[in-house]
């Protein structure tokens, strides 16, 4: 008797490293959901989101997006373009040189966050979801559908690290959590974009002009936001939009093109900045512009000390104060005991030279210290300066700075008969007082940028970098470390004093309370250092952008009140965790923090 046996049918296990999404939906359906949801989000912005104009921005109109609807429209359009590029639509391949899926996820996530923030705000401020119109329900559903589809897009999952079978429950939990974070990072990661092909010079210059124009529009929109809800939505959209463009590879390609035309890019950036006052109907936001430039210029000077030379200076704002006080004392203020009124060029020289002298006097005995010891000494200098000018009031000390009252009634500058304190008509545009100082400060910023570029590329600049990387090795190679560090300290102090001379005339008054180590209002030493670290140490654009963000955001988020510093601290912690090299890092620092980025995610036997 013969017995027949049938082999048991086994279900084929999925192949290792098979691409899959965070949500178990087929890839084709997921891509369709992301695309359809993004399109519907765009359509919803042309519908009314609420029935009453009580919510800021008046979202009651049909066919005309307004307020937060504009931000959702921009985010939805960007997500739609990336989704179409992921389908391989002809003519859109240039949008995603590093791959489309990660860009889709960030763009959709930003649109979802802005839309739901708006819907929740409407419901909270007006008293429930019954205050939503059809457009509000549609945008909530559409962005949720798009987010589900985007998170279901497939990606290469990393293999979990091996773990000891006898590991404790806590060690197992840490292992699983680390693997979950690795999977999440892989889900939002993208490939490396290849080198951009060489285009005709005029085409590359046009691309640079377009990028600068977009930057000007974004900055002008952000600084002109009229209410808190709109600015929060702007931050969400701008943040996720930048992340999406970065993951798509467009930022890298734009950087490669601008690197080929550095001089044109720098000149174009200053031209775009000079156009900012002409986009304003009054002097309200030009005020923010000139303060941002003062803050950014001082941060760029600190970048020489911290970013290039690697010297941790926690009292740098004192050099700004030295320049401001020196210029105020010789600018004709009735509070000045000297009773002199120098012309602008002489006041600038006095402020810059005074800061230079203080920089050398403070640096000469202290720059032989390193690390934390140097930081403590500079912190002490910053506090000593503030206390000294507070006590030179004629009672506790000599009558020099008028004590806590400061030097007031500083007259406006008059340069070659051009009074910066009055409005002027230029080409049909009325340029107010703060716009006049904006142009002056822009010129000084250009000088500081020129000094930074020339010094960074010079022999002394390379010596600064050598000292920063390894002072012991630099000394062994024959570099005079003390002299090199003293030059960095002196140059940084001079540039801060240069900005301080303008600050004194812009604010009319200089007081000791303006030059603290830390506070809710920049400039102060903590915010200046944060601007350098946030933007990217050792670069030109990094501290400028970091200073602009750190001045603009606290100014716009005043509704947080006492929680401003808490929000600021949390933002810095998150940034240092996920992007420690800064927003615009140089290549060396990026590789220092992300050495594993160039290695394969999953090692083969050869890679191991």
TrEMBL record:
Main location: membrane
TM helices/strands, residue ranges: 32-54, 66-85, 106-124, 136-155, 205-224, 230-250, 262-279, 285-307, 314-332, 344-364, 371-389, 434-452, 486-506, 526-553, 560-578
UniProt-annotated location(s): Cell membrane
Protein name, as recorded: Branched-chain amino acid ABC transporter permease
Membrane topology: Multi-pass membrane protein
Entry annotated with the keyword Transmembrane: yes
Keywords: Cell membrane, Membrane, Transmembrane, Transmembrane helix
Lineage of origin: Bacteria, Bacillati, Actinomycetota, Actinomycetes, Kitasatosporales
């Amino acid at each position: 008797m013969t017995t027949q046996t049938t082999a048991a049918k086994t279900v084929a296990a999925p192949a290792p490293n098979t691409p899959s999404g965070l949500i178990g939906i087929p890839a084709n359906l997921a891509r369709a959901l992301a695309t359809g949801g993004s399109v519907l989000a765009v359509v919803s912005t042309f519908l009314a989101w609420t029935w009453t104009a009580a919510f800021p921005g008046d979202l009651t109109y049909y066919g005309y997006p307004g307020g937060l609807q504009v931000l959702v429209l921009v985010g939805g359009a960007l997500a739609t373009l990336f989704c179409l590029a992921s389908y391989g639509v002809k003519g859109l391949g240039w949008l995603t040189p590093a791959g489309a899926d990660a860009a889709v996820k960030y763009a959709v996530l930003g649109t979802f966050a802005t839309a739901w923030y708006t819907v929740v705000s409407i419901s909270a401020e007006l008293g429930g979801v019954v205050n939503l119109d059809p457009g509000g329900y549609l945008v909530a559903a559409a962005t949720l559908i798009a987010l589900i589809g985007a998170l279901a897009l497939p990606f290469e999952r990393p293999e979990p690290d091996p773990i000891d079978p006898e590991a404790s429950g806590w060690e197992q939990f840490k292992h699983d959590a680390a693997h979950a974070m690795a999977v999440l990072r892989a889900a939002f990661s993208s490939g490396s974009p290849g080198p951009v092909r060489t285009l005709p010079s005029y085409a590359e210059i046009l691309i640079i002009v377009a990028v600068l124009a977009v930057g000007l529009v974004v900055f002008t929109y952000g600084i002109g936001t009229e209410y808190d809800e709109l600015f929060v939505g702007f931050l969400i959209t701008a943040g996720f939009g930048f992340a999406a463009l970065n993951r798509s590879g467009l930022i890298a390609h734009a950087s490669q093109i601008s690197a080929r035309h550095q001089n044109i890019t720098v000149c174009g950036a200053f031209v775009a900045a000079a156009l900012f006052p002409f986009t304003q109907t009054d002097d309200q936001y030009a005020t923010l512009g000139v303060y941002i430039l003062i803050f950014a210029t001082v941060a760029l000077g600190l970048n020489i000390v911290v970013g290039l030379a690697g010297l941790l200076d926690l009292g740098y704002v004192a050099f700004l104060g030295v320049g401001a006080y020196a210029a105020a004392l010789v600018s004709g203020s009735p509070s000045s005991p000297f009773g002199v009124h120098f012309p602008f060029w002489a006041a600038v020289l006095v402020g810059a030279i005074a800061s230079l002298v203080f920089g050398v006097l403070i640096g000469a005995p202290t720059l032989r210290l390193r690390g934390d010891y140097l930081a403590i000494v500079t912190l002490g200098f910053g506090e000593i300066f503030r206390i000294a000018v507070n006590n030179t009031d004629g009672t506790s000390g000599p009558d020099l700075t008028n004590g806590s009252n400061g030097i007031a009634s500083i007259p406006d500058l008059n340069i070659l008969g051009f009074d910066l304190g009055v409005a002027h008509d230029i080409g049909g545009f009325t340029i107010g007082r703060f716009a006049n100082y904006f142009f002056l400060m822009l010129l000084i910023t250009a000088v500081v940028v020129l000094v930074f570029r020339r010094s960074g590329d010079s022999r002394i600049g390379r010596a600064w970098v050598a000292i920063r990387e390894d002072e012991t090795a630099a000394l062994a190679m024959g570099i005079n470390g003390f002299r090199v560090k003293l030059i960095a300290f002196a140059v940084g102090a001079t540039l801060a004093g240069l900005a301080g001379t303008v600050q004194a005339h812009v604010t009319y008054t200089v007081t000791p309370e303006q030059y603290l180590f830390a506070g809710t209002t920049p400039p102060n030493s903590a915010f200046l250092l944060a601007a350098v670290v946030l933007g990217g140490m050792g670069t030109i654009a990094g501290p400028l952008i970091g200073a602009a963000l750190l001045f603009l955001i606290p100014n716009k988020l005043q509704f947080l009140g006492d929680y401003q510093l808490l929000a600021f601290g949390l933002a810095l912690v998150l940034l240092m965790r996920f992007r420690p090299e800064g927003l615009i890092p140089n290549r060396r620092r990026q590789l220092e923090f992300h050495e594993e980025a160039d290695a394969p995610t999953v090692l083969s036997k050869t890679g191991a």
